[in-house]
């Protein structure tokens, strides 16, 4: 939901026969032309990029993680610094998640790579209990016990000050059976109602709340969840939970959800950023995406490139010795700072020498690549030529 | 030396009664207004800063290390990429050292921190032999045996393509006695003559060679070395070797050398970048400085600040918990990107969270701080007010 007279709006400018839509999401910190990609600024920074460079790369929106920011520096410190926008120097739209995904995935040891190099080494399971009230977990920063409830997540996100908030939900793992998923779905729905009530109590007209559709890989549950979320006063809707074990299953789930979502609300697909997945999601009516993939891959030397340049994976690995004497930029047709100034051989050298500038430059490229991809997708929707565009990226 | 009709010149615009001078050093890649600070781009990048940001910080010149670049990516690769300027995207003046300092200091295990995190762990002593011909050492990259001679250092530096080159010398450790230092000095002088001969053979009018004054802490040897270097056809002169065990000894050595150097040649003080040392050096006629200190310290959270803000050390340590809720920028009077956009609390958070943006932002500040310091020193020379300026930094 967004309060009456709010600074939020979502306008669908065009729909294509294949289901894609071109939209405009307006927030108090500016407008997002959709489809768009949100970059992950997990702990309050998109790793290695200052806000000025993010803008220079054509970035429209970023996402920050409530779980990490709650633990450090804490929402009170963020609020003292004027909220996330002021703290990060990021002028544009921003989304925070509820903290649930990290609690559950780190709790199950699932995305421990997120916090390797941290003090949790050898003790990844930090989730202690889930009950009707919320989740009890241990802080990876200082080992303290913490409780996250639907209400506290909303209050934390209010203090963090992002434009778009998400309600706490339980992220069921892929292996959860239908029964567990169904019961979890009902609890998530109760949590979303509590989140909405807390949000309405606070009623910040500078923030808007999305609902999250759950239901795992079960189409009937997904439909129930879509109907439930659509019936509540959420401003937008996010597709959460497990999307399956492979691309086919994911495409099936996203397609199902796409059919039953509220047709006029902005729709975010959580944590998905593969090129093919983006094209597929766009055709199911998804407006915005986020994923750590483009920036994380960059730090390890993986540069996103269009099909003709790629190693069959949509990327090139600049660590590879084959680039040691390659004078070309990552992509001669790219206008990013890295492609304008650095050869693949220089990037290879920086990465091999563990110079942090290497990861930074590749991150600049990947961010610009994703932003150009989304620009082109928006153009292609305008000219009904998504298929042709997708072929160029294959 | 610089070839006749060369693109190099050094003009002394003003001298003050206390010995400081305001100059202009012209190179094929632009002009350095002196006194000036050269930033260390050891392996072909000033750690964490792209060339665009270096320019934005008012940087005039950078330095790169022949030793590291010879081992990786190799001078042939650098030359293939168009030389260091093109490779790094750095448009301005650049200096390379001879490789000697790293061979000797890493060889003696002295600056092993430079390459910790590397494969040399537990085997820091890589210098195998020094003789009249040159130095034999092992590569820290692949363990191969390498020889560096005066001639090969010049040839490598020619391929790297910096504007200003340095001849190979033996860097005697502080504990070397007068006898050893005297014999080493003579060999270094022979090496410098060989370097000059090789340089003249190649005769690149786009590069200039400085001589290096040795002699350790022995004033008579320093004087001999100054006279020797002044008598040879070097374009400029650098003060190298051990400057003593404490500040007093260093000031005495630099003051001695300052008296006997060629009065019209540009003078570089190698590896010195403390604020007080810079003010002292400037008064002895030093024109340019370099040091890893401002950028290395930044990566560990040390931000350079004027006296009134400092913790008595010319800096503040942003890792300290006292900055956890500090809404001020590092220095409210600083115009750098970090001070315009980031609070100390945000920087503290980034550093504590090991977000690489933290070190980058503090590096931006420290680079800008050093560049502003040098700007002010140049202004103060113009108005004969160096003492007053120095007091403001205390």
The CATH topology of the largest domain in chain A turns out to be TIM Barrel
Span of the ends, CA to CA of chain A: 38 Å
Largest interface: A-B, 42 and 42 residues
Number of domains of chain A: 2
- Could you list the spans of chain A in which at least 5 consecutive residues all have pLDDT below 50? 110-121
Per DSSP E runs of 2 or more residues, the count of β-strands of chain A stands at 16
- Mind telling me the CATH superfamily name of the largest domain in chain A? Queuine tRNA-ribosyltransferase-like
If you compute it from the alpha carbons, what radius of gyration of chain A comes out, rounded to the nearest whole angstrom?
20 Å
Shape of chain A: globular
Helix fraction of chain A by DSSP (H/I, runs of at least 4): 40-55%
Global structural class of chain A: alpha/beta
Main sheet of chain A: which strands, in order across?
Answer: 6-5-4-14-13-12-11-10
Characterization of this structure:
Two copies of one chain form a homodimer. Chain A is of the alpha/beta class. Chain A has two domains: 9-34 and 65-291, Alpha-Beta Barrel (TIM Barrel), CATH 3.20.20; 298-387, no CATH class. Helix content of chain A is 40%, strand content 17%. The first copy, chain A, is built from 15 helices and 16 strands. Chain A has helices at residues 51-56, 66-71, 75-80, 83-88, 100-107, 150-160, 178-202, 219-230, 247-260, 275-283, 293-299, 337-341, 344-352, 356-382, 386-393; strands at residues 9-15, 21-27, 30-34, 36-40, 61-64, 94-96, 127-130, 135-138, 145-148, 164-165, 208-213, 236-239, 267-269, 288-290, 302-304, 315-317. Chain A has an eight-stranded parallel beta sheet. The longest helix of chain A has 27 residues, at 356-382. Chain A is globular and about 60 Å long. The interface between A and B is large, with 42 and 42 residues.
């Amino acid at each position: 939901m967004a309060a009456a007279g709010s600074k939020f709006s979502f306008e669908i400018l065009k729909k294509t026969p294949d289901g894609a839509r071109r939209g405009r999401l307006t927030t108090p910190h500016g407008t997002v032309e959709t489809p768009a990609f949100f970059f992950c600024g997990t702990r309050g920074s998109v790793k290695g990029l200052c806000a000025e460079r993010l803008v220079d790369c054509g970035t429209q929106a970023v996402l920050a993680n409530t779980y990490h920011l709650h633990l450090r520096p804490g929402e009170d410190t963020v609020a003292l610094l004027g909220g996330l926008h002021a703290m990060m120097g990021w002028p544009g739209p921003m989304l925070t998640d509820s903290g649930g995904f990290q609690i559950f995935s780190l709790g199950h040891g699932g995305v421990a790579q997120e916090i390797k190099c941290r003090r949790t080494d050898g003790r990844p399971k930090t989730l202690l209990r889930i009950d009707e009230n919320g989740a009890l977990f241990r802080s990876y920063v200082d080992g303290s016990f913490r409780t996250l409830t639907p209400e506290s997540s909303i209050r934390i996100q209010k203090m963090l000050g992002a434009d778009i908030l998400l309600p706490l939900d339980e992220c069921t793992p892929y292996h959860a059976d239908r029964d567990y998923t169904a019961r979890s779905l009902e609890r998530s729905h109760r949590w979303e109602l509590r989140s909405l009530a807390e949000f309405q109590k606070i009623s910040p007209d500078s923030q808007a709340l999305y609902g999250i559709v759950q239901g795992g890989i079960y189409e009937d549950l997904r439909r129930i969840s879509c109907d439930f979320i659509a019936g509540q006063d959420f401003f937008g809707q996010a597709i959460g939970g497990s999307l399956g074990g492979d691309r086919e299953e994911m495409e099936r789930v996203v397609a199902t959800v796409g059919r039953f979502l509220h047709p006029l609300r902005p729709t975010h697909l959580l944590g998905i950023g593969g090129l093919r997945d983006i094209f597929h999601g766009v055709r199911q009516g998804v407006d915005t995406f986020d994923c750590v993939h483009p920036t994380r891959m960059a730090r390890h030397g993986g540069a996103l490139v269009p099909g003709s340049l790629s190693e069959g994976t949509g990327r090139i690995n600049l660590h590879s010795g084959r680039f040691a004497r390659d004078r070309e930029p990552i992509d001669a047709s790219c206008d990013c700072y890295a492609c304008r100034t650095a050869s693949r051989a220089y990037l290879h050298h920086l990465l091999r020498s563990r110079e942090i500038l290497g990861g930074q430059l590749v991150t600049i490229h990947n961010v610009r690549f994703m932003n150009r991809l989304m620009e082109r997708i928006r153009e292609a929707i305008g000219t009904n030529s998504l298929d042709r565009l997708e072929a160029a990226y294959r």
